[in-house]
Amino acid sequence: MTTSEFNTCVDLHSDGIYRFILKNMRDEDEAKDVIQDAFEKIWIKHEEISFEKAKSYFFSSAYHTMIDRLRKKNKQVKYDEEINHESMLHSKQYSDLKQVLDEAIKKLPEAQRSALLLRDYEGYSYEEIGEITGLNESQVKVYIYRARIFLKDYLVSIDTVL
Predict the structure, then answer these.
(1) Within 10 Å of residue 53's Cβ, how many Cβ atoms?
(2) For each of the chain's 162 residues, which pLDDT tens digit applies?
(3) What CATH number matches the domain at 85-161, 3.40.50.150, 3.40.50.720, 1.10.10.10, 3.40.190.290?
(4) pTM for this entry
(5) How far apart are CA 114 and CA 97, in angstroms?
């Protein structure tokens, strides 16, 4: 990838990557640091990367950089097979759907949240999400399914809606 192609990729994809990382980390400064580190890693290898696969490479690099940061801070959410949905509900009253949805997304385990955001917010295919996250396609489908079930249960709860 040439310097001008790299700059074009940064211009085209930086906003989407930033939104994705910010949604997961919930800290603007940390998200900016992750994006900067990811772009630096890509720049170091920019001659080895083809322009056609740059978007996927940018998202993968940012995703893995974010995971590394989260692990360093011991903030990674461990996936628990037996999620108690009742304990995740709250009784605060909201009228803004976006705020309720953001609260619900924050309560998802890291793997489910990342897969769901990549699929529903960024529009990636299951295969592309698998490449970015390092999961196989069936794992991606399961995580997205479980995230959607949780969100459905969370959003239709009368306590959440009121």
Answers:
(1) 12
(2) 888 888 888 888 888 889 888 888 888 888 899 888 888 888 888 888 888 888 888 888 888 888 888 887 764 445 444 455 555 555 555 457 778 788 888 888 888 998 998 888 888 899 999 988 888 999 999 999 999 999 888 888 766 555
(3) 1.10.10.10
(4) 0.54
(5) 20
